[in-house]
C-alpha cells in the first residue's frame, strides 16, 4: 500500500527535526542540555564545577588541607546552595585558562574575582557584579618605587590575562612587563629580585604585604569592572538562578557578613548591602 504524500512528508519532517534536535544537543557540549533532573544543564546534575585559582587570598585560595576557601568561594557556595545545587567543586588553574574553559563547557562556572568587561563578555556571560575594588602595585621596601611614575624602566609582574595586564599595557608603556601564570610565581620573583614590582588585586596585595613585608606603591580604582561569576553563554537558566541567589545573599546580609570576615577594615561598596544599610554605610568614593 502506498503512503499518502502528506503523511510521508510529515514523517520526513519529523525525522529531520529529531536529527536537528539531536545535533543541537551535542553542539554546545551535551552539558548544556537541561532536563527535569538537571534544570541548569550542569556537566553533572546536582554538582557545579567551578574553575578558580588557588593563590588569590582572600578571594580564592586553598587552605592548609588543600580545600578551597575565601570570599568568592564562600559567596559562590552560598549562592549555589540557594539555587538548589548541593555540591560545589572548585578546581584551581592558571587565571588565563578560566574563561576559555568555562566557554567550552569544561567547567560550569568561573569564580576568581573576575572583573566584568565587554571584552570578556564576548566569550562568556557574567552574573551581576558582587565585588568592586582596586588594582594594586606592590613592591619591596627598598625598590624606590613610590608611585606609578616610579615604574618607568622597571620590571613589573602581571598575571597573564588579568585586567592588570591590560591596564599596564595601556597605561605603563615605559615599564617592562613580565607575565606570570599566577600570583605565587610573581611574588616569588619579586622576593628574589627578578622583578621590581607586581600588579594584582588590592586584597591579595594586602595579604602578600603582610606575609613578606612588601609595600603598596599605587591603588588604581577598578569599579567599572566589578567581579562576577562567569557562565557559558548556553546556560541561561544557570545564570538566572545564580543572579537570583546573589540578590538574596545581598538582601539578607550574607554578602556583608562574608565581606567583613574576609576583608576586615576595607570600605564596603554599598550597592551590595541590604537596603537598610545602604544609606547608613559609607561607600568608597569613585
Ligand atoms: O576589577 C576588579 C574588581 O573591581 C574587584 O576589585 C575584584 O578584582 C577585579 O575583578 C579584578 N581582578 C583581576 C581580573 O579580573 C584579577 C583576578 C585574579 O587575579 N584572580 O583580571
How would you portray this structure in words?
The chain is α/β, with parallel strands linked by helices and 286 residues long. It has helices at residues 5-27, 71-82, 98-103, 118-121, 163-171, 183-192, 202-212, 236-251, 254-262, 275-278, and strands at 47-52, 55-56, 60-62, 68-69, 87-92, 109-110, 125-126, 134-139, 155-159, 176-180, 197-201, 215-221, 230-231. The strands form three sheets. The chain has a five-stranded mixed β-sheet. Strand 2 and strand 3 (60-62) form a beta hairpin. Helix 2 packs across helix 8 (236-251). Deoxyfructosylglutamine binds at residues 53, 56, 95, 112-115, 131-133, 159, 162-163, 201, 222-223, 225-227. Residues 53, 56, 95, 112-115, 131-133, 159, 162-163, 201, 222-223, 225-227 line the site of Deoxyfructosylglutamine.
Protein topology:
Blueprint: H1 5-27, E1 47-52, E2 55-56, E3 60-62, E4 68-69, H2 71-82, E5 87-92, H3 98-103, E6 109-110, H4 118-121, E7 125-126, E8 134-139, E9 155-159, H5 163-171, E10 176-180, H6 183-192, E11 197-201, H7 202-212, E12 215-221, E13 230-231, H8 236-251, H9 254-262, H10 275-278
Parallel strand pairs: 1-5, 1-6, 9-10, 9-11
Antiparallel strand pairs: 2-3, 3-4, 6-13, 7-13, 8-11, 8-12
Helix pairs in contact: 2-8
The structure holds Deoxyfructosylglutamine.
